[in-house]
Amino acid sequence: MFSNKDIAQFADLDTPFYYYDLKLLQQTLDACAAAANAHDFHVHYAMKANFNDRLLQSIHATGFGADCVSGNEVKKAIEIGFPKEQIVFAGVGKSDKEINEALDLDIFCFNVESIQELEVINELAQAKGKTAKVAIRINPNVDAHTHHNITTGLDENKFGINSWDLPLCAETLKLAKNLEFVGIHFHIGSQITNLDVYKNLCVRVNEFAGWFEERGFMVKVLNVGGGLGIDYQNPEQQIPDFIAYFQIFADFLNKRPNQEVHFELGRALVGQSSSLISRVLYVKNGKKKNFVILDAGMTELMRPALYQAYHQIENISRQDSEEVIKYDVVGPICESTDCFGKEVLLQETKRGDLIAIRSTGAYGEVMSSHYNLREAVRSSFGQGG
Ligand code: LLP
């Protein structure tokens, strides 16, 4: 991924920083767009994965819409230039202020997660003399077979409306004068690598679409969410298999000719196109363990501390041919979970070496924090190696 030229450039830069490979990003976006267009599917980028302006500009230029989960994300999408009819607003806890702002901006639709939220959107729209378009997020009780912290589509999760509440939901929709029902929405979890899971989702989507149609609703939009995973173990597998992914929905969804199928992909679009670049501050050789202490910590990349997530770690100042040693690679934060990897094989590492932590484009920079009064993490852009 990096040429020597890149590393020479990095040598002068202040670390830590996120390096974004804009060439790989564009290749990934193009691959996704081509695979989706083949079926006339619509992709909304899940902005929560990364709202870095430079990335959003490429994503917008590729023609994707925006899936937002806060009022600020909606405003950012508008600022970047996403057309309002391609902006959806999801989230289990939208505030009145956020709903009002989104109503003022005339976005495409609200993905609604509870009956009470339907009532509130109806009231707020009524006060403005507007009609809000809504899609009902249904909890389909489909197991995504991913890390339990990023599973969202089971009965025990807080997301969406459960199937037993749908009769009341349908009644509420029928009575609400300022709501226009446009369709149904699902999202069962993130970092899904077993594509069979999506076949089960399609079966449920078909059932629920049928349920609404039987009650006289026109289901214009089938929004199946996101969740397509990336290969953290092998970051050289740079571009996810979008063709296989979309083919499942083409094969298993009972799509009516007048229906649109929407996707909300985040990680799959941006995950592999970034590495967190950090410098070795100290090396501690102990009796039982050797530690490499980096200038990046859980404040810059929280995933390992939060989900025990695996990210490949490389010493990019050393040659592949050099002998390797096992190190625990840790950050400077005063928390024991501030660890990027245990017993990582690295070439003999010295103070000042540059370390790349791979596959950090999704849920990396956006989940960084100021804990310990750390500085905001920087980003840098290149065209790959
Ligand atoms: N749609 C909805 C309603 C979502 O909640 C999410 C992600 C997505 C779409 C996009 O999912 P993706 O395609 O990126 O898997 N911070 C965690 C991931 C949290 C995902 C939250 N929802 C991580 O670092 O793994």
UniProtKB/TrEMBL annotation:
<dbReference type="GO" id="GO:0030170">
    <property type="term" value="F:pyridoxal phosphate binding"/>
</dbReference>
<protein>
    <recommendedName>
        <fullName>Diaminopimelate decarboxylase</fullName>
        <ecNumber>4.1.1.20</ecNumber>
    </recommendedName>
</protein>
<feature type="binding site">
    <location>
        <begin position="264"/>
        <end position="267"/>
    </location>
    <ligand>
        <name>pyridoxal 5'-phosphate</name>
    </ligand>
</feature>
<feature type="binding site">
    <location>
        <position position="363"/>
    </location>
    <ligand>
        <name>pyridoxal 5'-phosphate</name>
    </ligand>
</feature>
<keyword id="KW-0456">Lyase</keyword>
<feature type="domain" description="Orn/DAP/Arg decarboxylase 2 C-terminal">
    <location>
        <begin position="18"/>
        <end position="361"/>
    </location>
</feature>
<dbReference type="InterPro" id="IPR002986">
    <property type="entry name" value="DAP_deCOOHase_LysA"/>
</dbReference>
<feature type="modified residue" description="N6-(pyridoxal phosphate)lysine">
    <location>
        <position position="48"/>
    </location>
</feature>
<feature type="binding site">
    <location>
        <position position="267"/>
    </location>
    <ligand>
        <name>substrate</name>
    </ligand>
</feature>
<keyword id="KW-0457">Lysine biosynthesis</keyword>
<dbReference type="InterPro" id="IPR022644">
    <property type="entry name" value="De-COase2_N"/>
</dbReference>
<feature type="binding site">
    <location>
        <position position="227"/>
    </location>
    <ligand>
        <name>pyridoxal 5'-phosphate</name>
    </ligand>
</feature>
<dbReference type="Pfam" id="PF00278">
    <property type="entry name" value="Orn_DAP_Arg_deC"/>
</dbReference>
<comment type="pathway">
    <text>Amino-acid biosynthesis; L-lysine biosynthesis via DAP pathway; L-lysine from DL-2,6-diaminopimelate: step 1/1.</text>
</comment>
<feature type="active site" description="Proton donor">
    <location>
        <position position="334"/>
    </location>
</feature>
<keyword id="KW-0663">Pyridoxal phosphate</keyword>
<dbReference type="InterPro" id="IPR000183">
    <property type="entry name" value="Orn/DAP/Arg_de-COase"/>
</dbReference>
<feature type="binding site">
    <location>
        <position position="303"/>
    </location>
    <ligand>
        <name>substrate</name>
    </ligand>
</feature>
<feature type="binding site">
    <location>
        <position position="307"/>
    </location>
    <ligand>
        <name>substrate</name>
    </ligand>
</feature>
<dbReference type="GO" id="GO:0008836">
    <property type="term" value="F:diaminopimelate decarboxylase activity"/>
</dbReference>
<comment type="subunit">
    <text>Homodimer.</text>
</comment>
<feature type="binding site">
    <location>
        <position position="335"/>
    </location>
    <ligand>
        <name>substrate</name>
    </ligand>
</feature>
<feature type="domain" description="Orn/DAP/Arg decarboxylase 2 N-terminal">
    <location>
        <begin position="38"/>
        <end position="270"/>
    </location>
</feature>
<feature type="binding site">
    <location>
        <position position="363"/>
    </location>
    <ligand>
        <name>substrate</name>
    </ligand>
</feature>
<keyword id="KW-0210">Decarboxylase</keyword>
<dbReference type="InterPro" id="IPR029066">
    <property type="entry name" value="PLP-binding_barrel"/>
</dbReference>
<dbReference type="InterPro" id="IPR009006">
    <property type="entry name" value="Ala_racemase/Decarboxylase_C"/>
</dbReference>
<dbReference type="InterPro" id="IPR022657">
    <property type="entry name" value="De-COase2_CS"/>
</dbReference>
<dbReference type="Pfam" id="PF02784">
    <property type="entry name" value="Orn_Arg_deC_N"/>
</dbReference>
<dbReference type="InterPro" id="IPR022653">
    <property type="entry name" value="De-COase2_pyr-phos_BS"/>
</dbReference>
<comment type="function">
    <text>Specifically catalyzes the decarboxylation of meso-diaminopimelate (meso-DAP) to L-lysine.</text>
</comment>
<dbReference type="GO" id="GO:0009089">
    <property type="term" value="P:lysine biosynthetic process via diaminopimelate"/>
</dbReference>
<keyword id="KW-0028">Amino-acid biosynthesis</keyword>
<dbReference type="InterPro" id="IPR022643">
    <property type="entry name" value="De-COase2_C"/>
</dbReference>
<comment type="similarity">
    <text>Belongs to the Orn/Lys/Arg decarboxylase class-II family. LysA subfamily.</text>
</comment>
